[in-house]
Amino acid sequence: MRELLVDFITSLDGYASGEGWPGFWGLEGPEYLAWLGEQPEVTYLMGANTYRLMSGFAAGETPPGTDEFTADEEASVDGLTQASKVVFSASLEEPLTWANSTLVRDDAVDAVRAMKEDGAGLLSTIGSISLSRSLLRAGLVDRFRVVMFPVITGATGAERIYDGYPDVALDMIDHRTFDGRIQLVEYRPRVLDRPPLDPTA
After folding, report:
1. Domain that holds residue 23
2. Which terminal CB of the chain, N or C, has fewer other CB atoms within 10 Å?
């Protein structure tokens, strides 16, 4: 059975982005960027908003306040363009213009459950906070990975990631520090019906 990874990049206080901040909060370093380039082949899952944003980058748009991409950012976008992508949306129209993108209008939970049972290779969300939340709540997520950048964006943060999540127990399976400041933590998640009497059990 294929594994499903939910993969987030966040500020320390759990925001996916911040008004006025550059990509990666301006703190990406060579170790982190090299690690990004070493990721295994994956099929990316996303919703309409993430698709619109990322396909815009692929078409040459840059984030607000940014005149151009760095060479590393261009390579990252090019890698996403070459990868297989599945987009869950009732609002987008076919054909999707971003290469290697497939539009799915069916219920995302049912579709991903079928994708996990058939086929090979890793499935991973990219952004898509509400999609990731739905897949986690349905018990479909095998690995939950967060890369935390050392900023707190209490005044400017946007897209709070964990609002609306169920209670989840997390068993750590990996951790790493990049460039002396960026922290990766990876867990196996267990969705809880109620808080456990003994959190270590």
Report:
1. 4-191
2. C
